[in-house]
Specification:
Length: 389
């Protein structure tokens, strides 16, 4: 079913590409098509475009230019950071610390490493969704080689105490990786101030293209490459560079950097309007994850006595797109590992919806959701077999 009004509130899953980004990319599919490894003029033009994008990313993160490695995605950046650091440093130790609310790109990578002789500590989180710095400290052992804690959570938006964890890791001489796929563009990130050694980011979460990402790698950190071949990207990521994608990522980051403060304020206001409107007007609802230290674009709400999937489909019929969990797990009916880690019961987890705002979300969009949602929830509760209505 389609309706006239379309309100996309699933920017945590992916975002529409900004037209300025599309415009920047287009010439690199056609007249500027060169292979950046070629020595002739078309090759040089492609090389310059890549180095320009590298410069934009390094300025944005406050790193050096040769500390940015382009990859194909956030997932690849996480894999390169974690497997790369683990395999390269296994002589020093085989213990890794992470959290129980990481994205599968981190959790499954850690599970893979467990099958290859590494030991992983999965830290719990508080009821409101934070990793405790004290828990990290207690988990550190003589053989700990890597700590990987996400900058901000993709389901509940909580922002972790990254600078403090980074400081602790630095004092102990342990490599610190953060998955910043959801945080980039929505928070001010400075790899120096935050004491970060490795940071993953992705193009398609920030109004850039899909199929391109980057890993920041502090110069002194050694990684084992995952891809072997022509030695691209400082020997860490062989394969002919995705020049249009890299140009698009650079442009997307440039736009984020320009409008960061005003965008944070604008989105926070809309997010709060959405959260307050739902909690005020719909009974038996609660916000998952802390209200403070939360991404400006994330609202995750449990609607008691009903299934998130039914809400999602009813909203979809009204032209509103939301998600029931992280994009990757939302097709499975398993309860969200993040919501379970907060201490929610499986049935509470099933009744949860994630709303994620983006650059083009307007106050009218939020008004439309707030007008539409109470009726849907009431109808579903009237039909619900799950007890209280
Ligand atoms: N990490 C986090 C926190 C994410 O939210 C996602 C995507 O949902 C990823 C990693 C994976 O990024 P990509 O889709 O670019 O592989």
């Amino acid at each position: 079913m389609t309706t006239e009004r379309q309100v996309y509130l699933d920017h945590g899953a992916t975002t529409p590409v900004d037209l300025e980004v599309v415009k920047a990319m287009l010439p690199y599919f056609t007249e500027r098509f060169g292979n950046a490894s070629s020595l002739h003029t078309p090759g040089t033009i492609a090389r310059e475009a890549i180095e320009n994008a590298r410069g934009i990313l390094s300025k944005f993160l406050n790193s050096k230019e040769d500390e940015i490695i382009f990859t194909s995605s956030g997932t690849e950046s996480d894999n390169l950071a974690i497997k790369g650091a683990a395999f390269k440093n296994q002589d020093k130790g085989r213990h890794i610390i992470t959290s129980s609310i990481e994205h599968p790109a981190v959790l499954k990578t850690c599970e893979f490493l467990e099958k290859h002789g590494f030991e992983v500590t999965y830290l719990p989180v508080s009821r409101d969704g934070f990793v405790s710095v004290d828990d990290v400290k207690k988990a550190i052992r003589k053989d700990t080689i890597l700590i990987s804690i996400m900058y901000a959570n993709n389901e509940i938006g909580t922002i972790q105490p990254i600078a403090e964890i980074g400081k602790l890791a630095r004092e102990k001489g342990i490599i610190f990786h953060t998955d910043a796929v959801q945080a980039v563009g929505k928070l001010k990130i400075d790899v120096e101030k935050d004491n970060i050694d490795l940071l993953s980011l992705s193009g398609h979460k920030i109004h850039g293209p899909k199929g391109v990402g980057a890993l920041y790698k502090r110069k002194e950190i050694q990684l084992e490459p995952l891809m072997h071949g022509g030695g691209h990207e400082f020997g860490l990521r062989s394969s002919t560079e995705n020049v249009p994608g890299i140009v698009g990522l650079g442009k997307a980051i440039e736009i984020c950097g320009k409008n960061m403060n005003s965008e944070i304020q604008r989105m926070t206001k809309l997010r709060d309007k959405l959260i307050d409107g739902i909690l005020r007007n719909i009974p038996d609802t609660r916000l998952n994850g802390s209200r403070k230290n939360r991404l400006p674009n994330n609202a995750n709400i449990t609607f008691s006595h009903i299934e998130g999937e039914s809400i999602l489909l009813s909203l979809d019929a009204k032209g509103i797109s939301v998600s029931t969990g992280s994009a990757c797990s939302s097709k499975s009916l398993k309860p969200s590992h993040v919501l379970l880690a907060l201490g929610l019961k499986p049935e509470e987890s099933h009744g949860s919806i994630r709303f994620t705002l983006g650059r083009f979300t307007t106050a009218e969009d939020i008004d439309y959701v707030l007008e539409t949602l109470p009726e849907i929830v009431k109808k579903l509760r009237d039909l619900s077999p799950f007890g209280k209505k």
